[in-house]
Amino acid sequence: MIYSLWMNLINIGVDAKTPTDTATSIRLVNTMNAVTAGSAIFLAPLLTYTTGKPILLPGYIEASLFLISFWLNHKRKHFLAASLMLFTQNAAALYFGLHFGLFVPIVSLCIALGLTSFFLFQGTIKWLPGFLLSFLVINAIYFSEKSNLIVPWKFQVNEENSIVYLANVVIYLLSAIVVGFYTKQIRAANRYKTKYLTKTNHEINRHVFALQDIVNGLPINKDSGKIVISDSDIRLLKKYIQSIGNVVQGGLQLVKIESGHYERANYEHLELDSLLIDIKDEAEAFLTMRNLRLTFNVDPAVPKVIYTDRNKLGFILSNLISNAIKFSNKNSGIIVNISMSQDSIIYQVLDFGKGMSRLKLSEIFHRLFVTEDNLLVQGNGIALPMIREFVDLLKGRITVDSDLGKGTCFTVYLPNKEEDETVEQGDIKWDGSILKGRKVIAVDDDIMGREFMRKILLQMGGEVFLCKDTLEAMEAFRSVKADLIMMDIRLERNVDGLDFIKENYSLISGIPVIMHSSEDSDILQAQIEKAGFIYLKKSLSADDLHNTQRVIRNLMRLPLNL
């Protein structure tokens, strides 16, 4: 009961969105307010009664100013709260130092207050006024003592000993609080960074060994002597490589977060279903291990193509789902609801697991490496703090509700940005209106090739239907009323994309076709153009991407294929 009240007191002004370094400063201010105000409220009447000196009114004014500092923290006026606390501490030190003649103890207190100012406002020049104020108090008391400017009160021997003892106790407590706070922070930072490095090393080794097992287990064709690799093997390899990349990226993001430098958002047009499929594939093995069901409920009002940062949104959702998997009861389910409000897309991740206490809810987004241990941080130890950083970067907000023993619900609100905004990427300005409302079938047997086409087509606002082979292409030709077809020239099993298009042209008659290849061949280009199609080089160079956008813009002057 007492501990709970104390924690609530020192956490006044701290919530889940308060940055960790700010939260630490707020707790230090509140702790010094509580200790000094409590001392003043208790000692002022006691010393007034025993000595007969005018101590009661100054003591209660001092306590009142500390209570106002609490109120300022509650109102999120943290700089004013800290400044008022430091001013009151120094004013009290000056008043009682002059009248009690306690030069040596007061010097110790002022040194502690100067260090407190430095700790509270480190990284800015704001620490200097508090530091100078403490320095002036020391010199004012020293000057008064040497010049007898203010004659200290006279006390009986037993009274003076009691006052010195009480002053030393209060000063010792305040000094211990300052030193203890930051010693604890440094030790915690070192401990959790070591923990992070250990987890990171384990995560990377685990995935590297899994990659080795997959590669070593691939069959070899007896006739050709070549390794045989299937699509499922490729997907599995891609998953583990992506997991290693996520761990490495997590470390890079940690450096940026701790240094206060963050990435800017890289907006692009994103096919939401494609992202959800990737996230589910990535989580499949972990879901199977715990016998969990993952369900996506997407409101029909949510656009199929959204305008956001794919990597950051993917990180947010996949890590919220990872946490849900970790803390869900076995044989239960995880539900992801995606819906629309007037100006936001709402992503809700709900689990039926352990749940969290109110105290834990106030801490889960704090940066692990400068604050308390966080049991909800999954994997490499920085997921939830980074989720909050990414949500803020995307101009959104995140909330969490939880019932202990019943489950937890994270809700992310992200702005629904316009799809036809121009996107800058390097030297390329992508016009999101070129393919707006248009359907594009993109055929490529290579994963990276499909990703290349998906990205540039979504940047231009198109709804993309990806096909990895001729079977999927045939199905798309029959079911999708496409406005554009992009076909790789070299398909699986040495199938020629140009021949395939010619053989099945009756299915796509009247639809513009772009044949693309990484081969820079004049002969190949002549063959394609002779057949009545358009040739584009598959390249990431600025000139080639500019040309791709120019060609598609000219093609899309044709009416929509409705």
TrEMBL record:
Enzyme kind, highest EC tier: transferase
Keywords noted in UniProt: Membrane, Phosphoprotein, Transmembrane, Transmembrane helix
Catalytic activity: ATP + protein L-histidine = ADP + protein N-phospho-L-histidine
Pfam annotation, one family: Response_reg
SUPFAM superfamilies for the chain: ATPase domain of HSP90 chaperone/DNA topoisomerase II/histidine kinase, CheY-like
The protein's name in its UniProt record: histidine kinase
Residue span, Response regulatory domain: 439-553
InterPro entries: CheY-like_superfamily (IPR011006), HATPase_C_sf (IPR036890), HATPase_dom (IPR003594), His_kinase_dom (IPR005467), Sig_transdc_His_kin-like_C (IPR004358), Sig_transdc_resp-reg_receiver (IPR001789)
Location of 4-aspartylphosphate modifications: 488
Gene3D superfamilies xrefs: 3.40.50.2300, Histidine kinase-like ATPase, C-terminal domain
Record EC number: 2.7.13.3
Membrane-crossing residue ranges in chain numbering: 55-72, 102-120, 127-143, 163-183
PROSITE patterns registered for this protein in UniProt: HIS_KIN (PS50109), RESPONSE_REGULATORY (PS50110)
Residue span(s) of domain Histidine kinase: 199-418
Alphabetized GO MF terms: phosphorelay sensor kinase activity
